[in-house]
Amino acid sequence: MYPNAGQRTSLARAFGCARVVFNDAVRIREDARRAGLAFPTASELSRKLITEAKQTVERCWLGEVSAVVLQQSLRDAEAAYRNFFASITGTRKGPRLGAPRFKSRKDTRQSVRFTANARWNITTGGRLNLPKIGAVKVKWSRILPATPTSVTVIKDSAGRYFASFVVDTDPAADAARMPDTDQTVGIDLGLTHFAVLSDGTKIGSPRFLRRAEKKLKKAQRELSRKQKGSKNRDRARLKVARAHAKAADARRDFLHQLSTKLISENQAVAVEDLAVKGLARTRLAKSVHDAGWAQFIGMLEYKAERYGRTLIKIGRFEPTSQVCSTCGVKDGPKPLSVREWTCTACGTLHDRDHNAALNIRQAAGLAASACGAPVRPGAIPAQREETGSHGFPTGNRAAQRHGNQSGKARIPAHQSEEHVKP
C-alpha cells in the first residue's frame, strides 16, 4: 500500500486508537485479577471502553476512527486471553504462552483490521477504500480468488504498509493445481548447500544476510552516531530496518519458491526434525538463522496439508551420515571435513550429503514411488552418539564438533562453511 501524507496520518490515528483500547482491556482485566473479581465480559468491555469512553473528554478522540477497528482490537485481546488460558491448562499445543502484555507505540509492527461490516471496498481503479481513511493506492501481488471477508492493514518496522486479505479457497481448485504424482524425495539441509535432495540435486545457499552485511554494518554505524530523539536518527533507523527487510524478503521469496517446487513435484517429502534452537547457540548461530531452516519446514508443512501431500519428519538422532544408503551398514561417525567416503562393506563411494538425503528418504519409509514400502534391508535404530544429539555446547568445543577443528568461527564469504548435521 502507498498511502499519501493525509492517509498515513489517519492510519497512525487508527493504530493508536486500537492500541489504546487493547491496553485498556488488558489493564481492566489485570485489575480484576488482582482484586479477585470475575473478568468483565466482552460486551461489558465494549460498552465501557468504546461506547462510554467516546463520551468522555479523555477518550473522545476514539470517535475519529472506525468503530470496527476498536471492536476488532477487543477481539484480539479476548483471543490473547483464551490462548493464554488454553496454554496453561494444556489444551493448546505448542510452546507455553504468557499473559497478554501492553502494546507500545514504538512496536515495530502496527496493525488494524476491517471486517465486512466496516463497508470497505475495492474501487474500479484498484484502490482500497477504507472508512475514515480514504482510497489508498495499492500494488496488487495477485488477483483475489474470492470475495474477502476482512482486510488487515499492517505497518512494518521499515515504514512499509501492507494489506492482508482473508478469503475462502476451494480445496478442489487447490487439488487441480497440483495433481497427484508418484515421486518422493528426501531432503538433507545444510550450510554449504542449503538442501541436497535424494535424487542428487544440490541447491546452493544464497546467504542473504551475509551478502547484505557490508551495507548493514555501514547503516548501523551511521545510526549509532546519531543523537537520540533526533529526526536524523529516525531516518537512520529506517535505513537499517529497510536493509534488514530487503534481506528477509529475499530469503522468504527463495524459501517460498523452493518449497512450492518440492511440494508440486513430489507426493511425499521427508526431512529431518532439526534442533534449530540448539544450533543457534553455537558459533554458527548467524549462519543458522540466515539459512531459515525452521521457516522452510513450516512452509512445507502447511503447503503439504493444503495440496494433499505428505510431509514426514524423521528423528534428529537418526544417524543419516553414518549409514551406507546402499547396503545399510553403519560405518561410524565421521568428521565434517570428510565430504566423501567409501563404504567398507560394499565399496560404494558416497557423497556425504547425498547419502544423508537417501537415508532420510529411506528412514521415512519412502521408495522411489509413493507406495510407502521400506527399501532398507533392516531397521537401523537411531544412535544417540550422533553429533549434536545431546544439545549443543558453546565455545571452542562446539566449533570443533560442528565442522571447525581449530575451535574458531572461520566463515569466509565464499561458501566455506561445512555442512551442519544436528
Topology:
Elements: H1 5-35, H2 42-51, H3 67-89, E1 110-115, E2 121-122, E3 128-130, E4 134-136, E5 150-155, E6 161-166, H4 171-177, E7 184-189, E8 193-197, E9 202-204, H5 208-224, H6 231-265, E10 268-272, H7 276-279, H8 285-291, H9 293-306, E11 310-314, E12 340-342, E13 349-351, H10 352-363, H11 396-401
Parallel strand pairs: 7-10, 10-11
Antiparallel strand pairs: 1-5, 2-3, 3-4, 5-6, 7-8, 8-9, 12-13
Helix pairs in contact: 1-3, 2-3, 5-6, 6-9
Low-confidence stretches: 369-422
Strand order of the largest sheet: 9-8-7-10-11
Number of strands: 13
Shape: elongated
Instruction: Give the proportion of residues in helices.
Output: 25-40%
Largest sheet report: 5 strands, mixed
Count of DSSP-assigned helices: 11
- What fraction of residues sit in β-strands? 5-15%
Spell out the helices and strands N to C.
HHHEEEEEEHEEEHHEHHHEEEHH
Kindly provide the radius of gyration, computed on alpha-carbon positions and rounded to a whole number of angstroms.
Answer: 26 Å
User: Structural class, from secondary structure content?
Assistant: alpha+beta
Average pLDDT, rounded to a whole number, is 85
Compute the separation of the termini in Å: 41 Å
